[in-house]
Amino acid sequence: MARGSSSGPFKRFGPEIAKFGAVGAAGTVVNFGVSNLLWHLTSLQAVRANVIATIVAIGCNYVGFRYFTYRDRDKSARTKELTLFLVFSLVGLVIENGVLFAAIYGFGWDSALERNLFKVLGIGIATLFRFWSYRTWVFRTLPVDDTAADPLDGPRRPSQHVS
Question: Against a cut of 0.70, is the pTM above it?
Fold first, then answer.
């Protein structure tokens, strides 16, 4: 197999996607757990209860993303990072809860099963947005040191110009 064929998008993004997915899965468990508890144990309206659950999950996810998924990323501007994380998380919250709101109040789909199905759809759409926004704007990569050694290619050498 040629050396270039092993370096594709999965090799570059695979570990990041796996870590993002692990944190996201934990956040999803928290989100579903809190929302279903609130739906069954309180008289809160479904979307309000879901907003609370989403906020709790956002807090859990920040800890997981900062200290697991993106622990190697730039940590120099934590206030800016947290602000951007909250802004993009708020957009994800609106996406997730907008889908649920449309299902309940637009179509009348309000059984426990329907709530959970549309919660899955909303989380799925919001997750795509969050992955893109977090990796692009929130947890920025550190600048690459061109003089560092590549474990597959050996040490980098300065380019030589032939005249």
Answer: yes
